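Lab manual, section 2.4: Encoding a predicted structure.

Procedure: take the sequence of the chain (134 residues), apply the prediction step described in section 2.3, and record the output as structure tokens. A sample record is shown.
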Amino acid sequence: MPIILKNLQKKIPIPKHKILNVAKAAVRKLKSEHECLSIVFVGSARMRMLNKKYLKHDYVTDVLTFDLGDKAAEIIICPKVAFSNAKAHQSSTEKEIILYVVHGLLHLAGYDDHEGKDIVQMRQMEIKLLGGKG
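Recorded output:
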């Protein structure tokens, strides 16, 4: 499956090689039926606009996932949120961004994180796909 990375923001460096490796491995493990995946990195203003337009949430979020039909999908990530969350969790921005990629792929595979049991299951799968590194 081709995985296309697009960086539409300039402030946070994007570890493209690592992201591609993790995404390809996760796609294989999840046996994704998608034939084309786009991962797009955007600034806070664009992320807020997309979140408001598609989910009716008027705030900046970390990751949005869209199944575009015709076996295509898109994951949109806000690196600025990753930077802030990494500081709060005493992690690195790179690890946080990679977590968002895996999180988006899990949404595409049908996982949800809105209720207790589902959240636990999704966190367990994130850890599994990240090689045991939570």
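Check your result against the sample. The longest strand covers residues 63-69.
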